[in-house]
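User: I've been going back and forth on whether these two constructs are worth ordering. Before I decide, could you fold them both?

Assistant: Sure. I'll take them in the order you sent them. The first construct and its structure tokens:
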Amino acid sequence: MKNKPTLYIVQGALIAAMYIVMTVLQYVLLPGTVSNEIQFRVSEVLTILALYTPAAIPGLTIGCVLANIFVGLGSYDLLFGPLATLIAALVMYAVRNVRLFKLPVLAALMPALFNGLLVGFEIDFFFNNNAQAFNFVDFLIMGGFVAIGEIAVLFVLGLPLSRVLELNGLDKRIFALKSNKQKI
């Protein structure tokens, strides 16, 4: 594909679609694992794609919004989860070249950090305390649970995925725009 804007849109749309399908499928097969305090949302492995294409940033955000419509906890979940995903993907893209033992460890921590903070706040304030009061200890517990799930997904699945993509050159073949001049 030679048209860079078209490639960007296609990549973002495919990432959004994969996020939605993975989240909804997990929600159907393993209820409670994608939207409770302790969650292990396997679709979050796709956040690792923000290392390879900026198209992943809107793709992940839109995918999170649409997935949360199906599996979320209501209107708050349509704001806090996608906002955390957006910020995490932006920061992941910004630090994509920072490596530890050839792995993007710092980038892989971003979904845990931002989902822990934002979704942890959402769960504590809006669901545990009915928007009446903020409890810092409960926030730390809820945010910690969310962060642990994110770390588990990104470190168990995401970092190996990034390594496989890079070792096999798939990161460049799949996400890089190359002008393949065809001979006539």
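The second construct, handled the same way:
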Amino acid sequence: MKITKSKLIIALVSLGLLAGVVRAVVHKRAVQQLASAPAAATEIELAPTDVMALDTQNLTQTLDISGTVKALNYAVIKARVAGELKEMTVREGDSVKAGQVLARIDPTEYQRRWAQAKEQADAAKAQMEIAQRQWDTNKALVNEGFISKTALDNSQASYQGAIASYKAAIAGADVAQKSLDDSVLYAPFSGQIAIRSAQTGERIAIDGKVLEMVDLSQLEVEVPVSASDSIDIALGQTATLKVEDRAEPLVAKVKRISPSAQAGSRSVLIYLSLDKPQGLRHGLFAKGTLALRDVKTLAVPLSAVRTDKTLPYVQIVTAVDGKLQVSHQSVSLGARGFVSQAPDAQPWVGVSGLAPGTQVLKGDVGALREGTLLHTTPSNNAQ
């Protein structure tokens, strides 16, 4: 009797569990069928501007770039000789002409060295003249037999040695003169003083930085690009740039391309010439787009392509039983770029897998379920 009751309880519990599992499976299938069922009862109203007809577009492929505005003529003026900075005639922002004196280093030491070298050269010249007279005399004496040929050769060697000593002294005097000349710093070109790195009275070492100057009349933008992107860049291509917070964009063209990649970053430097450099400064940051090439292809705005499925797709308008409804059509994406005729600057992308003239929903419409009924509001021109 006890065994029978136990079996009965176990059977009842098993039946209860089985019934619960069946109810759960039935409920899940019902939810899935409801989710996958076409929303025939849902109807969306669209404006004519929410739909576009697929057509061939002329896409301008672009490359995002950024770089630094640099002066074509830029110089760091350094001291060529060591000494105390005695005079500085310019300050930051001053305009200077090519060849203008910018600074002077104390020349006292170099004046003394030049004077010493000049006296040594004069002494060497006197010794050379003495040796020359001795050689001329010995040439006359050897012809008359008063001295030997060996004595003549010795006097000739002495004369040649005196000539060499005189030339060496002259070279030393020239070096001393150059050091004296280098105590004065001149502007290498016409421009403006950018940085003043030393002050009057300061001791300057050789190659010590004194000034920096730039010529703002000729500016360019130095842009690093990856090695793969540099393959598509050619001279004369046009870029649209924005510099810092300047409102109006600037037009620039590719003027030079570096033939080698940078060590470390492996990037390639390209240089863009600016059409209107007025008002710009050396060192400003610029960014924009570089137009690479034009491609004709069937294209849609990039915002119209949806990626919430395994494959990218677009939402198209199809007619079923005389009614308009939404369908999802998978597409293959191609070239990306901008349409010059488009009123906005949104990116477009080439697509394949659709026929020309297909009605495509724009990205502003948002995601709609397949089978959603549609009707469009007449445009003002049609009323």
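Notes on the second construct follow. The chain has a mean pLDDT of 85. The chain has four helices and 21 strands.
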